[in-house]
Amino acid sequence: MAGLYPLLELYGLQLLRYQEQMLHWPEQPVNIITKWLKDHSPSLVVADFGCGDARLARSVKNKVWSLDLVANDPSVIACDMSNTPLESSSVDVAVFCLSLMGTNYSSFLREALRVLKPRGWLLIAEVKSRLDPNTGGADPNKFLKAICELGFTMESKDFSNKMFVLFYLKKKVRFDALFLYDSSMTLRKMR
Ligand SMILES: C[S@@+](CC[C@H](N)C(=O)[O-])C[C@H]1O[C@@H](n2cnc3c(N)ncnc32)[C@H](O)[C@@H]1O
User: Fold this and answer.
1) Which of 32, 65, 127, 177 has the highest CB neighbour number within 10 Å of its CB?
2) Which residue out of 33, 55, 69 has the highest number of ligand 1 atoms within 8 Å of its CB and is therefore the one to mutate?
């Protein structure tokens, strides 16, 4: 456990630096996601991956599971985003607000895929420069292709903000079972 403390301290410092930077942004991505949720049903269950200070949970009526490595607030579940205690297929909206980009982002998305219900939403907000090959960032098309290959479909993209981009995806419905009509025209599960 002793080795974990410097790591947690580092995350705390990173969060403080990030919050200071955000203060200078004309618009916060978490506000756009809050508005999106308010435009949809309050019955949607949300998982906020890398929630920071859990502002999203405080801003909407929805049930929000706030998840972060660092839990400064008792409402935040302290966990790694790649291994959360949430039940499979229990969540309608998975949010990654400035918390996805990292070497193991596919493990975070696999976890989101696990906890999302079929056709559940995946909302991603990310710093624009991180998805701009001209500034050393990733190629947004390759990034989105990799996400879709994990099991999501693209619904819409928003590049209108100067500081961040927003992606709206949905979990693909998988047809694991094959249903066929038999000779008496009864629908039967074949596998
Ligand atoms: C830039 S902050 C974004 C906070 C919040 N989503 C917002 O928009 O205000 C990124 C957050 O992701 C968290 N984070 C980074 N890696 C994580 C991991 N593996 N598991 C859980 N949280 C993680 C950090 O602790 C930090 O709070």
Assistant:
1) 65
2) 69
